[in-house]
Write a structure and sequence with these properties.
The protein is of the alpha/beta class. The chain contains 19 helices and 9 strands. The strands form 2 sheets. The chain has a 7-stranded mixed β-sheet with strand order 2-7-6-1-5-3-4, sandwiched between helices. A two-stranded antiparallel ribbon has the order 8-9.
């Protein structure tokens, strides 16, 4: 009797140790410990314990698989484990985020240049492969030494656990963090296979009745979509730390519409909606109209603009945020900052974007630029130079870890928003140009990420994940917005940007509004909304009411 009990105790203790080891391997940290520290509440501790329990239970199931005999079974289990650990480690190395359904979708749909990817990321690929093989062999060896005799009943445990992972993944549109990658990765691939493929063909043409009037257009139209910018953390909107002193010093030179609501709480959602002109009443977009209808670049081309799309986030030769190879046909110049300025720290990417804009301005008199910045994406401490850590004033917080996170974010905002705009604006003739500035989504910083990250929560996301700034620079934008700025303060939406851009390009306001809704200077007829989950309703998608 004593021996079976001791054997089971060793089995459970080994599973706990393997769960901790896999968490360190997959994330570079004990994920459940970080969760407890970041949430700093009793609720956070309970969530962390639950996370650890689910992770350990999943590892128990995996240990049963790893201990099974038979060459075919053992070889299959080992190969799946190696591939899963490899995919997770490489994804964390390249993107600092865990493997998700979006990564599988992107790999399948983005037409990535395999040879370039293998060459450019050869070191990361080799390192991840070696580590995955060693970790998998260790898991198999330890499991075979410590797992009790496997009965028919116990063999069903891994199957049930994998089914639970797949069901949870489908229910949450890809959120399966508590499960280790040897269980999560197969579930992600399996669920992704059932999603309908995204439309990959060309876009339709701009309607013939949409006719711009060149004399009423700005010479340069610049749409700046910054990354992870929370409106509540800008001092121009009343935040106590000095995150935007430059913008405060030139308050009369632009229009601040306050806290707008983003189109989505994730970068891909927002950028596709902003580029496609998808209306709020069209989401979730099951017909995939956002991929079939003409985008903002086609409208700009018809208005006589040279179009430039600057991607400050994508790795070389890769696409992000639903960008497809077919979309390159709609853009005159598509520049990935990582290809333009190879190497160097992450925080210099947005400076390189400035250089790209300067070069385009020198060669093209009439220019439309869509800039997707690198911005202030977490981890915040790498998004600004060490010498620009100018904010150190303690921010009110529940504990030291949360306080440090808020200070790091404040410094990232100071660099990404205030310092960057201070460099951009002297380059633009605002008497003949228009600049719209916003963020792609907000941040759940006061909530400590709510256990699911700072943004991208699928079900019931907090409004903080969709609260973004809305700034407009330039004489034409000033004439439209300043008279209504007070009345519409904190009442605008991303869904108003597409028609606003069209008007600045010379399209009649009546035509733009009829197709895409009211511009920024007109009140919305209904409540503001934002989408979470999958834009194209593959799995879970929600229209969240902000007002």
């Amino acid at each position: 009797m004593t021996r079976p009990i001791a054997s089971k105790a060793v089995f459970l203790m080994t599973a706990c140790l393997l769960a901790a080891g896999l968490s360190l391997f997959e994330y570079g940290e004990l994920r459940f410990v970080k969760t407890a520290a970041s949430l700093y509440t009793a609720r956070g501790l309970a969530y962390a314990l639950l996370y650890a329990a689910v992770h350990t239970a999943a590892v128990l199931g995996l240990m049963v698989v790893w201990s099974l005999r038979g060459r075919v079974i053992a070889a299959t289990a080992l190969v799946v484990t190696v591939l899963s650990l490899f995919a997770q480690h490489l994804t964390m190395s390249l993107f600092s985020e865990p493997l998700s359904v979006d990564h599988v979708k992107t790999a399948a749909e983005a037409a990535v240049s395999t040879s370039f990817f293998l060459n450019f990321y050869a070191r990361e690929i080799m390192e991840s492969a070696v580590k995955a093989i060693l970790a998998a062999l260790a898991c198999v060896y330890v499991s075979r030494r410590t797992t009790p005799a496997v009965t028919g009943y116990a063999r069903a445990f891994p199957v049930v656990a994998l089914a639970c992972a797949g069901a949870l993944l489908y229910r949450t549109a890809g959120v399966v963090g508590p499960f280790p990658s040897p269980m999560r990765a197969p579930a992600i691939v399996g669920v992704s296979a059932f999603y309908p493929a995204l439309y990959s063909g060309g876009r339709g043409d701009v309607a013939s009745d949409m006719t711009p009037i060149p004399d009423s257009a700005a010479s340069v139209v610049l749409m700046v979509v910054d990354e992870s910018i929370a409106a509540d953390y800008l001092s121009i909107n009343g935040y106590r730390l000095p995150t935007t002193p430059f913008l405060e010093s030139i308050a009369g030179a632009y229009v601040n519409m306050g806290r707008a609501v983003s189109a989505g709480n994730h970068s891909a959602l927002t950028n596709m909606i902003l580029q496609s002109g998808l209306r709020a009443d069209q989401i979730p977009d099951a017909p995939q109209s956002a991929l079939r209808e003409p985008n903002i670049f086609q409208y700009a081309r018809k208005a006589g603009y040279r179009t430039l799309y600057i991607d400050g986030q994508a790795s070389p030769r890769m696409f992000v945020n639903y960008m497809r190879k077919a979309d390159l046909e709609t853009v005159d110049d598509f520049v990935r900052v990582t290809e333009y300025a190879l190497g160097g720290p992450v925080y210099e990417r947005d400076l390189a974007a400035l250089e790209i804009i300067r070069e385009a301005r020198r060669t093209h008199e009439k220019l439309f630029v869509y800039l997707m910045k690198n911005g202030a994406h977490f981890p915040y401490e790498i998004q600004y130079p060490p010498h620009r850590k100018v904010i150190a004033d303690p921010a009110p917080a529940a504990n030291a870890a949360h306080q440090a996170m808020k200070i790091e974010y404040a410094n990232a905002l100071r660099w990404s928003v205030d310092d960057w705009l201070a460099k951009l604006l002297p380059e633009i003739d605002l008497s003949r140009s228009v600049v719209f500035y916003t963020g792609d989504h907000g941040q759940s910083i006061e909530q400590g990420g709510e256990g699911t990250g700072t943004h991208g929560k699928v079900a019931d996301p907090p409004l903080s994940q969709a609260s973004v700034p809305m700034l407009a620079f330039g004489r034409m934008a000033d004439e439209k917005l300043r008279p209504v700025a007070h009345a519409l303060q904190d009442k605008t939406s991303h869904f108003q940007l597409f028609p606003s851009l069209l008007v600045m390009m010379g399209y009649p306001e009546a035509e733009a509004s009829a197709r895409f809704g009211p511009p920024l200077w007109k009140p919305l007829e209904g409540p503001r909304v934002f989408v979470s989950g999958d834009l194209f309703a593959r799995g879970r998608a929600f229209r969240n009411v902000a007002d």
